[in-house]
Queue: 3 jobs
Job 1
Amino acid sequence: MDQETLKEFKGLLESQLEALLRDAGKTVSEMTDDQSNFPDPTDRASLESDRNFELRIRDRERKLIMKIRQALERIEHGTFGECECCEEPIGIERLRARPVTTLCIDCKTEQERKEKIG
Ligand SMILES: [Zn+2]
């Protein structure tokens, strides 16, 4: 992959990471600010499930943040855009759609097939 394209992906990943970190910070402060009393048990229950929902979202965000950091590391190490399974280049269109991907479409399809059987 040429330097120009790498730079493009680096910028893309960095802005994604920034947006995620900003949102994650917002969620945390919203949760800690929220010390209000809910005398009605139904309100309390719905508040609890909202929190569970937020925590799940944050778990997914955390994983995505990790993936983006790993992708940025691959850019640094010059392995970005290589399939980690067969070491063939991952298609540029596939990378544009999902820059954190580590598998080419063939290996990904194979992996999903195995997961379905397993
Ligand atoms: Zn592959």
Job 2
Amino acid sequence: MVQHTEHPRSVTFPNNDMSQFGKGLSHFQHDFLSSGLFTDERLARLIERYPREYYMITTMTQQGQKPEWRNGDLNGVSGEYALEAIRNGRLWLCLRRFDLIAPEYDDLVADAFAQIESMNPGLTTSGHKSSLLISSPGARVLYHADIPMVSLWHLRGRKRVWLYDPNDKTHLPDEVLEGIMLRETEEEIPYDQSWDQTAQSIVLEPGYALSWPHNAPHRVDNLEGLNVSITTDYFTPETKRRYGVYYTNGLMRRRLGVKPRSTSANGIGAYAKCAAALAAKKVGVKAATERSMMQTFKLNKEMPGALIDLSPAEQQAITQY
Ligand SMILES: [Fe+2]
């Protein structure tokens, strides 16, 4: 049973405010379901054609327990079996990089972004990277913040998205955000349940999409049914600069012991930091401390939804491209 605060203080409803897309909160309808690409049959075929290096399957602890994600392996099951396992288990499957593996799905997203940009003169988005998320009725995504802007195109089931103010340094201290930008950490950022009192809480229904302010911490509780969504990462020029600022501030703090003074994403300082971040990435300055992922379980082929824990000797790093 998914636990969540019964009467969240701030509940938002679809605003269809496309002028906020790429900046603030935008909650609007989409038409992806009319493509017919999200039936069990189509999803099963999609799962089967995914190479190991482009999918992740994870399980997570319950609300109230020590937050933990664990990565696993599909163990060669059929697409139908994988869906059955997700329906019955506590699992979250992420099929990444549509651009390489699922072009027909990528086209849907590309069309939607083209429409959104045509409705918003002045909005330019880039770096679109989409993944399909298929998760259990009781699955959840732990409190975290993402590096890029994120849009979530919901397709099946119901989920509640909790959004926290990205400018509240209690929710997201600068040093933590820097660690995210440097890919040192992602899921393990500090969270206190009392913050839910001031969070925005949005129930996402099939056919609705959501995009939120850059780096806004969030978590997700699935409420009902097999949940299927597309998540698309993107950047705007402003958020790319903000990324560069925090990336470079993080490097300065960690390498030079300098306490960064400015987190503004505008002005000449911001542009210089952004250039430094790109240069550092190009020469691989941070590669050694980026986190690596281990797989610690595989699906049980006889019992849909059950997991087989791997012994330390069987555990191996998951290579993701
Ligand atoms: Fe996220």
Job 3
Amino acid sequence: MKMLVTLHLCLLLVFLQARSSTASKGRRNQKLAEDRLRPYIGRVEPEELCKLLKCYKPVGSWCQVVEEDGVRVPKCVCPKSCPRQVAPVCSVLGKTYGNQCLLHKEACRKRRRTGLAHQGHCIVPEAVCSEGEYGQFPFRLLDWFLLLSRMGDPGSNNTRSIPSTPLPQSCLSREQRRRLAEWRFGVLDRNKDGKLGRRDLKKLRYKHMPLEHCAQRFFQSCDADSNKKVTLREWTGCLVDRSEIWFQQFMSVKMGSSKLCLQVENNH
Ligand SMILES: [Ca+2]
Ligand SMILES: [Ca+2]
């Protein structure tokens, strides 16, 4: 028991020493950085010197001009409060802050060294729909509709003819797939004018939809006559035919067979 306590104490000592050596290294670096600028204080604008001062300590701090003994000097400080000024910046961790002061305020609070990546909001790269994803999009969309119908989504009793057993989409008949597409068309066409406009399709797009970033390109391609409305005929043609074509190609390449419903055939 005594040995165990001694061991714990030793470990604690090693841990504290490691921490204090990191902390003192930070302080040392900070002092070196400040010493390097000292000869220029009073000769160069402190705001300019601030641009050159790297902040190690306190962790998360930024350089501000402060008065020390009547002299304006550059100093690394943690902001206690920040102006309301809106001048967004993006941190190296990809988070947008209202202004740079807020970035350092949080960095200090979390004791995390977080630098400025650039002025302005962080730019989130838009997902690009690859050709491969675009090809499989109709199939994935029908798969999703099938799942919604099995979950008893509103109006899904129109799809009663579709087996509720968890058979994959590829085992449905063409007619069943067509009905599935038709049912979803009815749900989306809220004003019942027999066409899906931009507003109807907007309802379809949300984060749970598979390959959501391919949606816009796909729906545009469904509008065969480019009148900005997708009719039922355009919809089913686009969805059912293309998902079948993709699946047959996919199966023949990946599985060495172009048969759609391998599972059922295997069961017989
Ligand atoms: Ca409509
Ligand atoms: Ca159209």
